[in-house]
Structures are given as structure tokens and as C-alpha cells.
Automatic annotation (TrEMBL):
Residue ranges occupied by any Mvd1 C-terminal domain in the UniProt entry: 203-376
EC number: 4.1.1.33
Pathway annotation: Steroid biosynthesis; cholesterol biosynthesis
SUPFAM superfamilies xrefs: GHMP Kinase, C-terminal domain (SSF55060), Ribosomal protein S5 domain 2-like (SSF54211)
Cellular component, GO annotation: cytosol
Task performed by this protein: Catalyzes the ATP dependent decarboxylation of (R)-5-diphosphomevalonate to form isopentenyl diphosphate (IPP). Functions in the mevalonate (MVA) pathway leading to isopentenyl diphosphate (IPP), a key precursor for the biosynthesis of isoprenoids and sterol synthesis.
One Gene Ontology MF term: diphosphomevalonate decarboxylase activity
Protein name in UniProt: Diphosphomevalonate decarboxylase
Catalytic activity field: (R)-5-diphosphomevalonate + ATP = isopentenyl diphosphate + ADP + phosphate + CO2
Diphosphomevalonate decarboxylase-like N-terminal domain location: 8-173
Keywords: ATP-binding, Cholesterol biosynthesis, Cholesterol metabolism, Lipid biosynthesis, Lipid metabolism, Lyase, Nucleotide-binding, Steroid biosynthesis, Steroid metabolism, Sterol biosynthesis, Sterol metabolism
Family label: Belongs to the diphosphomevalonate decarboxylase family.
Length: 392
């Protein structure tokens, strides 16, 4: 077959990647660790097809044709083809000189700034590797599309090693534990209402480069904080120590945003609602006397929270109390259903936070840790028709 379709997951880092030592090969300045999220709630889906009939390479993203003249995309394809030619066992039914058509879409809003490039490039590289029968590690290929994409190639908790080779061959991702390891762990993604002023906030890619060029604090982070945290959080994950896991996750998110502010000009990603969520979680953990919930923020204002399954109903009720939704429709809570529970008055009093104006929180996605990319074998799943045109 000369057509392959697959889905790939989003991943959320608990020890963040920020700063490159090689912009072209996308080699990071530090190791990072993430959890891969379940594809049932969020995924990218990609169909790749090659044929001697195709006149040029083409790509459609989320319903729109985009330029193929994108160095990251070209690098991934070039590397896949190089590896395919190396593979003497390949059946040789696909000629690497044929053009490719690629069609990809996310089942979650790209505007939410939720690691869509990681899922997208992981999906693309996984599908191309299947099409061209490339064997062995492909995380180093996905990394050349978007650094964090290498972590979406694997399920469970994943460690991206910065590596030291100048060709990037040892900058790969490996699995720490599979998705079944910590089955109680849950993830809530809080998507906030965008304010007009938010459009003035920094954009991710340029920001990362500026941090590497100007931040003094980044030097401390990569030489001291991250190596220690990588070791400690790995132990916490393996031993399912939520208290420690939560502490390290929150501290690393805070340090990542501190490094962003230490960049000149500064990168500002969190907004007032993000900071209010941070205060709420510290107040909640304080009231309960232990770390029940951990927050982490990427290069955008939306919050990603880690917590354990038994704590989800009560915590969500607290969120609803402090950040009342505009309306309680099915559109508000997406993903794994949650039974609603009343918040004990005493808890509200000890948290001591007044309800905010309604509608600040647009919706919540409730998900868990999941596996890596999967191939879809049914032909009706393909996003391209028999002549290689998008079905939409
Ligand atoms: C804040 O992987 O999107 O989400 O390598 O330039 O494509 P590029 O950047 P990207 O950066 C993600 C940064 C982060 C932290 C993380 O996921 O580790």
C-alpha cells in the first residue's frame, strides 16, 4: 500500500525544554520529561500517500493547503527517505523519488496553543516511517520537525535526552514507564477566554532563541536545576510519589516562566487568569495539607493540571466555584466524564478565594496518560481519496 494514516498524541512536559544548542537540527540545551496524553481525547491525525502519478509534494493542514516550502517539514522527509534507502530489507515497492501528499488535522483547537506541533510532527514522522518501512529509532527524526514532537512518539512518561553528538544522533527520546504504570494519574487542561490584550503576548519560536541568547538565569537552570530535577522526578514517577512529582512539576513550570521573563525583551506567556489558577492551587493544596494538584504552563496562558483520579470531582467543583463557567453545557467539560460533588463550605472558607467573573474559563479537557501513535487500518479513515486529494 502507498497510503498510511495514523493518529498521534499530545504531550505535556513536567520538566520543560527551552533553548536550543543547534537551531537547524533542533538540539536542546537541556533534557526534558513529559507525559503523553491519551489519544481518545486529543490527537493529531495524518494521512501520507506517495504515487508515481503525483506531480508535486503537497500538504493540507486543518482543512487548508499550506506551502511545502518549510525547512522543518523538508528535513523530516529528507531524513525518512535517507533512512529508507539505507534499509536493505525494505520490499522496495515505493520509490523515494515519487512525490508525497500529506493531509493532517487535529481533533482539538489549535488556537488553544496546546502542543499541536508536537502531535502533528510526531504523527507525520510515524506515518512516513510506516509508509517507507523505516525501522529503528524515529524520535530523532520527529525532533527535527519540532523538538517536543520526539516525546510524542512514545507513550507513558518520556525522557528526551539532550545528547552531546553534533549530528544529533543521541538526542533521542526514551520511555521511562508505560501508560499503564500510574493508572490513577489524571490531567485537566483549562482553556481560558482570550482577551484582546493576549494577542500582544510573545510567540513561542522566536522567544526560545532570545532566551538562549540573553538569559543569565537559563545558564543556572540548565547546569543546576534541570539535571537534579530530571533525576528526582524520574524517581517520583517510578515510585508514584505524587507529593514530590507535583512539587517538581510546579517548580519547573515556575522556573521556565522566570527564565522567559529574564529574556530580553521578556517573553510573557501567562496571563492574569493563569496566575489566579496558580494561587488557587496553592491555596487548595495548603487547605488540604498536601500537594493534591500540580500546575504547569507552556508557552501560552492555558493551564495543564496533574492530579489523582479520586481528587478530580472535588477539585473540579472548586474550579467551578472560583471560575464559574458561562454555561454548564456538555461543551464545557470535554473528555472523561466526572460526577459533580458539592464543595464543602469549610474548604471554600479555608481556600479563601472569591468567585471570579463567569466565563473566564472557556472549557476543561479531562484526560489521562496514554500510549504513543497508532496506525489506522480501515480505508475509510484516510484523509486523502484514491487520487490523493483531501476528502474534506
Ligand atoms: C514550552 O517543541 O514547540 O512546550 O522545537 O522550536 O518546535 P520547537 O519548540 P517546541 O517547544 C515546546 C516548549 C514547551 C516546553 C516543552 O514542551 O518541553
Amino acid at each position: 500500500m502507498n497510503i498510511v494514516t495514523c493518529i498521534a498524541p499530545v504531550n505535556i512536559a513536567v520538566i520543560k525544554y527551552w533553548g536550543k544548542r543547534d537551531e537547524k537540527l533542533i538540539l536542546p540545551l537541556n533534557d526534558s520529561i513529559s507525559a503523553t496524553l491519551n489519544t481518545e481525547q486529543m490527537h493529531a491525525k495524518t494521512t501520507v500517500m506517495t504515487s508515481p502519478e503525483f506531480k508535486e509534494d503537497k500538504i493540507w493542514l486543518n482543512g487548508k493547503e499550506e506551502s511545502f516550502d518549510n525547512p522543518r517539514l523538508q528535513n523530516c522527509l529528507k531524513e525518512i527517505r535517507r533512512r529508507a534507502k539505507e534499509n536493505v530489507n525494505s520490499e522496495g515497492d515505493i520509490d523515494c523519488s515519487w512525490c508525497v501528499h500529506i493531509c493532517s488535522q487535529n481533533n482539538f483547537p489549535t488556537a488553544a496553543g496546546l502542543a499541536s506541533s508536537a502531535a502533528g510532527y510526531a504523527c507525520l514522522v510515524y506515518a512516513l516511517a510506516e509508509l517507507y518501512k523505516v525501522e529503528g529509532d524515529i524520535t530523532a527524526i520527529a525532533r527535527q520537525g519540532s523538538g517536543s514532537a520526539c516525546r510524542s512518539i512514545l507513550g507513558g512518561f518520556v525522557h528526551w535526552h539532550q545528547g552531546s553528538a553534533s549530528d544529533g544522533s543521541d538526542s533521542i527520546a526514551t520511555q521511562i514507564v508505560p501508560e499503564s504504570h500510574w493508572s490513577q494519574l489524571r490531567i485537566l487542561i483549562l482553556v481560558f477566554l482570550e482577551r484582546k490584550l493576549d494577542s500582544y503576548r510573545s510567540k513561542c519560536s522566536l522567544g526560545m532563541q532570545k532566551t538562549a541568547e540573553t538569559s543569565e538565569l537559563l545558564k543556572h537552570r540548565i547546569s543546576h536545576s534541570v539535571p537534579r530535577r530530571i533525576q528526582e522526578i524520574t524517581e517520583a514517577i517510578v515510585s508514584k510519589n505524587f507529593e514530590k512529582f507535583a512539587e517538581l512539576t510546579m517548580k519547573d513550570s515556575n522556573q521556565f516562566h522566570a527564565v522567559c521573563l529574564d529574556t530580553f525583551p521578556p517573553n510573557v506567556y501567562m496571563n492574569d487568569t493563569s496566575h489566579a489558577i496558580v494561587s488557587l492551587i496553592h491555596a487548595y493544596n495548603n487547605a488540604l495539607g498536601e500537594n493534591k494538584v500540580a500546575y504547569t504552563f507552556d508557552a501560552g496562558p492555558n493551564a495543564c493540571l496533574y492530579l489523582l483520579e479520586p481528587d478530580v470531582p472535588q477539585f473540579l467543583s472548586v474550579i467551578n466555584h472560583v471560575f464559574p463557567p458561562a454555561s454548564q453545557t456538555s461543551e464545557y467539560l470535554k473528555g472523561i466524564p466526572v460526577e459533580s460533588t458539592p464543595v464543602p463550605k469549610s474548604l471554600v472558607t479555608s481556600i479563601g478565594l472569591e468567585p471570579q467573573e463567569s466565563g473566564l474559563l472557556k472549557y476543561v479537557i479531562h484526560t489521562k496518560v496514554g500510549r504513543g501513535p497508532q496506525i489506522l487500518t480501515e480505508s475509510n479513515q484516510h484523509l486523502l481519496n484514491e487520487s490523493g486529494q483531501p476528502k474534506f
